[in-house]
Amino acid sequence: MHIASVEDDPAQSELVQSMVTKAGYRFTVYAKGRDFLAALAKPHDYGLLLIDWELPDITGFDVLRWVRSNLGHGIPVVFVTNRGEETDLVAALHAGADDYIVKPVREAVLLARIQALARRTVSLPVQESPFQCAAYYVDPVNGRIELNGELVELAPKEFELALLFMRNPGHLFSRDVLSSSVWNRDIPATSRTIDTHLSNIRRKLQLKPENGVRLTASYALGYRLELLGDEEPFTDNAT
After folding, report:
1. Which residues on neighbouring strands pair with residue 101, listed in sequence order?
2. Which of 8, 51, 5, 52 shows the shortest CA–CA distance to 29?
3. DSSP secondary structure code for residue 145 in this structure
4. In the prediction, which pLDDT does 162 show?
5. CA-CA-CA-CA torsion for 103, 15, 100, 60, nearest 10 degrees?
6. Beta bridge mates, 138
7. Would you give the end-to-end CA distance of the chain in angstroms?
8. 3-state class of 4 per DSSP?
9. pLDDT over threshold 90, residue 210
10. pLDDT band at 121 (very low <50, low <70, confident <90, very high)
């Protein structure tokens, strides 16, 4: 996969380039936002974008808005930022970022994010044949999930929610995305619907390291099903 980055700090761009090229990815970096957009406006083969928040000419938000307005949501975007406040990260996700990394960039975290987004991209169209996710056998067509060979009884929406996570391990899902993907409608922040269903699948499926997974949560940012061994991105607040 060819990764493109916009980053005006030479030391930071060299560090990231070393990390991703060592992992086997091609890498192209731009120092200015407008040069980055000019390259994206031409035919290219970029499969993932890394966008720095602070740029010398335009903001990373400007770049992100242009990407989503002109290229749609086909290219995953990871926001890279010095800002660790939840309000900033929520703003980036609502603006169309698929994920975020807080500087200083750690190699394990960066590669885990890239690999998770790459899996999601190459898995399209949606997988309908049965597949294995850690200790779970998932049958999308027949609506079955087995844990270590034993069928787990799930309500329809619980199954849809679990299936979304297991199809996309490592991907961060905001509450808005969960409500639109599973319930096909907006669910008010005051509603306990999502929390209740998350609690149910956590309990029924025993989503814990002993079974090769963990469900991590930040209620302002979203939820992520991680395969055992992935770097934990934030504190797991049990539902």
Report:
1. 80
2. 5
3. E
4. 94
5. 90
6. 131, 145
7. 36
8. strand
9. yes
10. low
Contact between 218 and 84 (Cβ < 8 Å): no
Residue 119's pLDDT is 67
Q: Is 45 exposed, middle or buried (0-12, 13-18, 19+ CB in 10 A)?
A: exposed
Contacts of 173 (CB under 8 A, 6+ apart): 164, 165, 181, 222, 223, 224
Q: Is 131-227 the same fold as 2-122?
A: no
Local structure of 2: helix, strand or coil: strand
Q: Please state whether beta strands 136-139 and 144-147 pair in parallel, antiparallel, or not at all (unpaired).
A: antiparallel
Please name every residue paired with 5 in a beta bridge, in sequence order, or none if there are none: 29, 50
Topology of domain 2-122, CATH: Rossmann fold (3.40.50)
Backbone region of residue 53 per phi and psi (left: phi > 0; alpha: psi in -120 to 50; beta: other values): alpha
C-alpha 233/C-alpha 126 separation (Å) is 26
- 168 three-class SS: coil
Q: 131-227: which CATH architecture?
A: Orthogonal Bundle (1.10)
pTM for the model stands at 0.56
Radius of gyration of the CA atoms of the chain, in A: 18
Query: CA dist 132 to 14, 116, 202, Å?
Result: 37, 16, 18
Which among 134, 125, 128 has a CA at the least distance from the CA of 170?
A: 134
Strand 46-52 and strand 26-30: pairing?
Answer: unpaired
In this structure, what token pair is assigned to residue 108?
Answer: 């394990």
All structural domains of the chain with their residue ranges = 2-122, 131-227
What is the rounded average pLDDT of the residues 96-110? 87
Residue 149: pLDDT over 60 = yes
